[in-house]
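Annotated sample (chain length 499).
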Amino acid sequence: MKTLFFLFIFAYQIYASTLNLSVSANPSRINPILATDSASSEIANWIFNGLFKYDKFGEIVPDLAQSYFFENDTMLIIKLKKNIKWHDGNIFSAKDVVFTYETITSDKIFTPYSDPFKKVKNVQIIDDYTIKVTYTEPYFKALEIWMMGILPYHILKDEANLMQSEFNKKPIGTGSYILKNFSISQDIELVANDDYFEGRPKIDKLLYKFLPDPNTGFLMLKQQKLDLGGLTPIQIDRQIDEPFKSNYKIIENPSFSYTYMGFNLKNEKFKDKRIRQALSLAIDRKEMVDILFFGHGKICNGPFLPGTFAFNAKVPFPQVDLVKAKQLLKEAGYDENNQFSFEVVTNTNNSTRVNAAQIMQYQLAKIGVEMKIRVMEWQAFLNTIVHPRNFEAIILGWSMSLMPDANSIWHSNSDKKGGFNFIGYQSKTVDELIEQGSKTIDREKLAIIYQEIFKQISDDLPYLFLYIPNSITVVNSKIKNIEPTFVGIMHNQKDWIKE
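Output written by the structure step:
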């Protein structure tokens, strides 16, 4: 009996622990279909599951689903796992899935997450653990949309106003952690779900410290009061010492975002592709990455995330060739007697973009190009420059996803007021590829299509794709079982052990 007691205490000592994290803003609604800010989304991801998820390789795998198959191009059958419990002990079933679909597409709910469900014709319950999804046409995001967190029917079925519901502050999910304490501008506490269907997490508690000032977060990392955090390039290169490096594992991967200089393609200056090529050949992107990020970044050569099915590894990275750049300018009618000049506009609250503009200004001067820089406050930039397309060139950035949707940025139909194709890119070839891809459910065929889109856009140069900064994460060295991949480190958090 003493031996059993000793073993129990020993196991408890190994696994009883707290993961100290930080959050810089208050979550607004901890509800997966309403969580539009990063703080809400991060907390909701611990609490809720979708039918599918991405694994560490960026591949789609079942989560609440057990299996799936397509009966035909527009009909998807999903089998659900059995004996999954909500945090209150009730059993998850097909009712919850249909309820979530009906809620997210309801005219009472205002959420951007409803758009991807517009291709769903209906969702039917076959039995308690089987659903049939019928699409209006073949849909390349047929599985991805079901990564949305599922809501509990038994709790919310009679909710009159989900937008204002108390549930959004006291959520009940099926996830690996249960929300224990949450108050505005206070720390947030989650505890391990003993009945989690993939096995109880080894770390008992997640404690999010409310730190609105990023400098405070860095100070707390240096004091070892946080187990996980992010560093800037200057912090990792100039502001940490050897004890810090021994206390933390440093994990560095390309971020899921890129920065670009976009041209107003309806402006006469940039209709000639030779001009865009000349500017690209004059810009030393490696020098830019070295100056801006101390080398903690990489050159960007196209619109989709490296390492994903859509990335075309055969597309060469931009090279510097000042002689050819000058030649192209001369062919287009510009030389020392007729200087090419233009203005680029960017926003004040991103010093990296401003610095990038200054570097390009210096580099372009080497080929006789005058680039003027205008910097504006963010909202004024959007409202008076970007949306009305009142610019010659702009510097902005986009986030990239594992499943890109080229339509919103690159299709000519998005070249309209309020559309994201605000540079006015028009390509019949790319339009046809996007439309073909949107109806392709075979991932291998979709990869071929999207890699060709990548090649076409990179060749057309509607943007000068500039750089992808690195994401630099530090994790307490006492935490074991971390498996970094290009999708990050959280994919196997339930297996982490904090010694």
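Annotation: The chain has 16 helices and 20 strands.
Annotation: Residues 1-14 have pLDDT under 50 and may be disordered.
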